[in-house]
Amino acid sequence: MSKPNARLSSRTMAFVLAGGRGSRLKELTDTRAKPAVFFGGKTRIVDFALSNALNSGIRKMAIATQYKAHSLIRHCQRGWNFFRAERNEYLDILPASQRVAENRWYLGTADAVTQNIDIIDSYDVEYVLILAGDHIYKMDYELMLEQHENSGADVTIGCLTVPREEASAFGVMAIDADDRITSFLEKPADPPGTPDDPNVTLASMGIYVFRWSDLRARLIADAEDENSKHDFGGDIIPDIVANGKAVAHRFTDSCVRHAPDAPAYWRDVGTIDAYWKANIDLTNFTPDLDLWDTDWPIWTYSESVPPAKFIHDEADRRGQALSSLVAGGCIVSGTEIRESLLFTQVHTNSYASLQHAVVLPYARIGRKAQLRRVVIDRGVEIPEGLVVGEDPDEDRRWFRVSEGGVTLITQPMLDRRAASL
């Protein structure tokens, strides 16, 4: 039953699609799905979609998982366990569990919702907000919900404004003067401009708003179509564009900025280079992504750890971090750290140096290690004297070096190196 005086967010469920591997992150997703990858010193990527929903007033959420989901499930159980059913709040984790047939996992993004129709029905919601769980951004979904209700659309699609020359990497939309979508194109060679600016294109963010009763009927029909791939971008959305009303919502209208003139921040950290850069950018004097904003916080699981500790103060053995982020539980022992980001419980040892380094939780940096432009995976033990970032050919012998010259180091890589020496 609709409650006309309630905020739209209170009548909405957020359904987060978090089952993808993110293969372009290479070995970073060997043991975890992309939404579970660490970001920003203490959070995970999925925390941004969930925090946006919570800050927007949405208190009913579900997370569909599939690929190597344990790390993601454990994080959500520990960090997002504050919802209370007696307050009509819910967060359900929905692994692909062969609920439809014994040999059937989630076949596509739409099928992930279809297989959980009965669970969504139990929420008694009027709207469903479909979210990708693998992007970094801040957005007030209430504004998108308002546009959806006011426009009478069958679907409202969150859109980025990107230069036309960059839009071929996205699913893009042609729109009319009223932001109604007239065509939906997947990675076109010649992306369309917009009516107000022919030099930019609207690209899909993978965010969709539907009225649940309408989406439910469409999902059931799609499930019966043997020719469908059961995907929102490939099947559900194109059908609505052709036979219904699809409207574009511009991210610039609802992004949460830390200052009026700040850019509309959105990042797909889907490659090693993009992931490294987005983390290192946080060390800037005024980063474009404000993690210190208490009005729109990014919620996460916070371990109970002691403060960061810096020890030794000698000319060549000084524990210090300059233009860097250092999380709780870290011990910087006689190490020089510059423009780097250290996650929880990282320990570094004397005479080592790190520059432009992203070091994930529980890593250990051995004495005299010299590390430049690196991403170090969780729990890695960097051996004494290891030098990375000076000889690209030598780095490639043992580690993953990206197109942009960033070196990814994991424990299996170090183990293979040790066995060969």
UniProtKB/TrEMBL annotation:
Residue ranges crossing the lipid bilayer per the database entry: none
Catalytic reaction list: alpha-D-glucose 1-phosphate + ATP + H(+) = ADP-alpha-D-glucose + diphosphate
Pathway entry: Glycan biosynthesis; glycogen biosynthesis
Site (Could play a key role in the communication between the regulatory and the substrate sites): 66, 105
Segments forming domain Glucose-1-phosphate adenylyltransferase/Bifunctional protein GlmU-like C-terminal hexapeptide: 306-409
Biological process terms in GO annotation: glycogen biosynthetic process
Alphabetical keyword list: ATP-binding, Carbohydrate metabolism, Glycogen biosynthesis, Glycogen metabolism, Nucleotide-binding, Nucleotidyltransferase, Transferase
Keyword Zinc recorded: no
Catalytic activity, EC: 2.7.7.27
Domain Nucleotidyl transferase: 14-283
GO molecular function, one term: ATP binding
Family: Belongs to the bacterial/plant glucose-1-phosphate adenylyltransferase family.
Role: Involved in the biosynthesis of ADP-glucose, a building block required for the elongation reactions to produce glycogen. Catalyzes the reaction between ATP and alpha-D-glucose 1-phosphate (G1P) to produce pyrophosphate and ADP-Glc.
Subunit structure: Homotetramer.
HAMAP family found in the cross-reference section: GlgC
Entry protein name: Glucose-1-phosphate adenylyltransferase
Lineage: Bacteria, Pseudomonadati, Pseudomonadota, Alphaproteobacteria, Rhodobacterales
Gene designation per UniProt: glgC
